[in-house]
Each structure stands twice: as structure tokens, then as C-alpha cells.
Hints:
Elements: E1 2-11, E2 16-25, E3 28-29, E4 41-42, E5 49-50, E6 57-67, E7 73-82, E8 86-87, E9 89-90, E10 96-97, E11 103-104, E12 108-122, E13 128-137, E14 144-148, E15 160-164, E16 167-174
Parallel strand pairs: 4-10
Antiparallel strand pairs: 1-2, 2-6, 3-5, 6-7, 7-12, 8-11, 9-10, 12-13, 13-16, 14-15
Amino acid sequence: xxxxxxxxxxxxxxxxxxxxxxxxxxxxxxxxxxxxxxxxxxxxxxxxxxxxxxxxxxxxxxxxxxxxxxxxxxxxxxxxxxxxxxxxxxxxxxxxxxxxxxxxxxxxxxxxxxxxxxxxxxxxxxxxxxxxxxxxxxxxxxxxxxxxxxxxxxxxxxxxxxxxxxxxxxxxxxxx
Length: 176
């Protein structure tokens, strides 16, 4: 089940646009995995389980502002905040302990900014721009992990890894 709300605002006098959406979902199944390819499961709960891509709460927003500064500078952002992804706890034998996908990683929050400048336009009427781009991913500096040691028998059980952190980005983009 999913409840989804989206709103787009245009500010033509400022040459800007902002979009925001919020989704409240539930993704469950009574057959969450193909049991023929994995070790046995000791599911100590009900017959339905949370699917591995379930994000019960998700807020997404993006915006763009085209300015006349220094020729053609565009400022944009992307915000993504969602509940942590589910995972299952297993033991050294690979057997799932407890309910399938009954634990969650911490909340994820990321705010990305990009500044771009058109350096050349190609095609009829200049409809294909070549842009220089630079920006910052995860400008909030939040520690967003995408993995966890879910082996109950491991001394590192519960330790988070695959940290996605703040970084500068740059590049050239060709639009068409």
C-alpha cells in the first residue's frame, strides 16, 4: 500500500522551480525470498515479511534556479530523507534468526547541491548546452550507512559500514 503526495511550485518571475513529495508505504509479502537458493529460515513471526526495498516514510525534494549571473549560472539541489532499509539477522550457518527483514538501518538524509554554467550551445537555436558542473553531495555531513554486519555470532555484530559521506563533485555535462 502506498500514499503519495506531490507538489510542484514554479516561480517564473525568478526562473525557479521546486518539487517536493512525501510517500508513506508498506511493502510486505508472504513470499519475500526464493527459498530454493538460500539456507533455511527460522522465521519466528507471522507469514508476511517486509520486503528489502521497503521505505515506510520518504521525503524527496528538488529545485532549480536559473540566474543571469556571469552569463548562465544554474543552482540546483536534491533532498532525500527516508527511513532505513530493512535487513535480516543471521547466524554463522547463514540461517536467518527472528523475522525476515525485521530490523532497519538508521534513517537516511542527504542534501546535494550543484552549480553549473553553460559554456557553449550546439544545434539549432542552441538547444544542446555543454555545461561545467560542480557541487557537493551530502552537504548535511550526516553519516549515511548502507550496510551492517548482521551476523549474530560475529563479534562485530551490529557494526555499520559502507559510509556515504560528504564529497565534492565536478564534471562536464552535455544536454540534449
